[in-house]
Amino acid sequence: MPPYADLYDDRSFPTWDHIPSNFFLGRNTQHRPQDKHWCFLAEIQQCDGFLRYRTVVKDDNDEEMVVAFYPDSYEGFDWNKLKRGHTLAIMYAYQHSFVDGSYGVRVENMDHVHVIPLPLEELQYLGAEMNEYSAGVEEGQWKCHGCGEIKPSSQISRCGRCKLVGYCGEECQAKGWSERGHKKHCKVIQDSNFMALMKLDFSRYERAFAFTRD
To answer: Which part of the chain is the MYND-type domain (predicted)?
Structure first.
């Protein structure tokens, strides 16, 4: 089993047409019990903060839909992060039909929402890299994030910030930062909410997962 979640896995990260519908279950999904984990990922295309926060997003099937927010409290969530090109991660999302005829996801519990400052395709690429290059994928061995060579862990130096990937030396580190995008991705990996999602065992359900809010 990979050390981190597979963002390409459509069972754990289903597209909109594969998430459950709330049509027969009533409108309020906030306290509905679940017996499994799933997370809906979609890239923000546009955002309207007039009267109520409402975004148009695109999922991994390139299908567009609406995500509208109906929270009990607007405190503790940074609404400024709702920007075009960022990815919304919504735990336990349900299909919803809005009164204006549009469809998408209605969000009531903001503890189930996190914004990741990467486009969806780039986020999936980062997830794959984490599973390929993180320490401990092969016991006693570590794959350099710069040159791709597998060497004894003692010959690899960790990134001093995220501690997740490693390099043979300065030349490989420069290559990882410039050519493999780690300068940008390192900041995302340091996000505790993102890492909590990546470490979640989607094959086991004990309690509902929640992101932390400031």
So the answer is: 144-186
* Domain ranges (residues) in the chain: 16-119, 134-187
* Helix (H), strand (E) at residue 17: none
Q: Which two tokens stand for residue 131?
A: 């599973």
Q: Which CATH superfamily is domain 16-119 in?
A: Nucleic acid-binding proteins (2.40.50.140)
pLDDT digits (tens, 9 = 90+) for 2-32: 789 999 999 999 999 999 987 655 545 444 5
What one-character-per-residue DSSP string does 79-145 give?
GGG--TT-EEEEET--EEE-TTS-EEEEE--GGGEEEESS-HHHHHHHHHHHHHHSTTSBTTEEE-T
Q: What angle do CA 63, 68, 69 make, to 5 degrees?
A: 145
For residue 143, give every residue at least 6 positions away whose Cβ sits within 8 Å of its Cβ, in sequence order, or none: 132, 133, 137, 149, 150
For residue 22, give every residue at least 6 positions away whose Cβ sits within 8 Å of its Cβ, in sequence order, or none: 29, 94, 95, 96, 106
pTM: 0.90
